[in-house]
Task: structure prediction
Amino acid sequence: MIKSLKIKIVLSLSLLILMLMAAGVISILDFKKIGNSVDTVLKNNYQSIESAKKMLDAVEREDSGILLWLIGNKDSGIETVLGSDSIIRKAIVDIEENITETNEAQYVGAIMDEYEQYYSSVMTILKGRYNTEESKQIYYSRTDSLFLKTKEAINRLMVLNQDQMYRQAGIVKEQSRRAMMPAIVSIAAAIIFALLLYFFIGTYFIRPVRQLINSIKEYYPEKGRLSTGIVSKDEFKELEEEINQLIYRLRRTKNSI
Result:
């Protein structure tokens, strides 16, 4: 049993501090974990969205290139088509290396299928020995619809990653709420512990002091020993014993005179 009043108070306060520190460390670790996971997911989604935007812009420029070719700007049209094709294929490779979502590979595969059909139709116009009217007929009857399908496939991939970002925001909100729970529990525990500490101080500190005060007020020399009723073995009990020793010495001195 701990007899030192000082140690009792220090231990009680130390326990409260440890509880708050533990809650703080747990909350920090949880928030750090959330931050790392969110950063990875959002970074991957953002990169996929940016690559999809590049593809969308490039396929629109490619379509502009074939239109330039159809109106007679053949060199500029071919250059635009080939440059756009290079950008699209690089963007597809980037997305394939950054697949994180369920079924995202299927979305990328659909883009590749649609684009290959569109690009094949474009090259049919560019390399085929058709006159202008025949080339325009091929474009409006087939190439243009393939162009729109390619854009739709790219947009579906963008929507997939955008939806995931929104879902991730909801997950982060829920995880943040959970990460706060240790702190909330710790605060509640600290309040309960503070009440217990108040009871402890009242029982082992305030009450013994009052017992000493009341006993001294009610003490008369005829009583002999001072009896406070303190049952603990700490400094208060030691003080009671020292007071009784003092009374004994005073009485002995008085009797010897």
User: Anything to note?
Assistant: The chain has a mean pLDDT of 80.
